[in-house]
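Standup notes
- DV: blocked on the single-chain target, sequence here:
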Amino acid sequence: MKNIVVVGSINMDLITQTDRLPKMGESVEGRSFGRAHGGKGGNQACAAARLGGRVTILGCVGDDMFGMDLIQGLEENGIDGHCIKVCENTESGTASIIIYRGDNSIIAIPGANAKVTKEYIMANQDIIKKADLLILQLEIPMETVEYLICYGAEEGIPVMLNAAPAARFSEELFEKLDYLIVNETECEFYTDIAVNDIEAAKTGLKKLKEKKVKNIIVTLGDKGSVYNMGGEIIYEPARKVKAVDSTAAGDTFIGAVAVALLEGRNIGEAVAFGTKASSIVVTRVGAQTSIPSRKEVEDN
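- DV (later): unblocked, structure below
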């Protein structure tokens, strides 16, 4: 079995469901509150592991009430987390999530994720060298992400970047990426093209392709996604489901795509598998708790 290494954020999600969003200065009564393990790195690792991948995660948590709980949660999902660093006198990353009408708004506090430094990565380089695919996001320091993209290119390790949340990084790094996955908002950020429909997404993908990225996927929420295969840009429709919470849908899509690619599927087959997996996630509340098993996806 091939190795997936995820380097990224590990958060505790604080989730509030509400039937009405408050105006500025207003208080409203919510419907429910809960906690769940999250973070883009943690979610993507969890998705890949549940869907059949062999996964190691590198990241940092705090020495607070959440830290060991977050590590335990990842390991219970079959993820190798032995190199996760517990940072002294530091809070774990958190994300305050408000769910309204099946969609969410998120305020993330980096906490220990800010300590996923280049030095920490260098101390764990032996783990990364064994990767058949390296998955990154932008919830850890940009210096670390840029270092890992260059390292992957030098060592011949395929790199998949989920460029979220959108942030500027060196233009020359785009051509070092094997896979770039962005949503419509991030696509607009990197291309200055407003992505408000499928055709605009295709135009945005073409603009990203000018940056010499090998493979690009632009996700469009309940509209599906577009991707390039060879010289063709292809649209993959979303499955029609009743969404209650979109948290971790994109992360599950990424984990599923990664697993499918390492199993030898082409990018079109991988996108279809990711679409199927993420369509299950949105019917459930929570991040990692909503991610389906391989059997659930195959039976769906």
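- Follow-up: The first strand starts at residue 3 and ends at 7.
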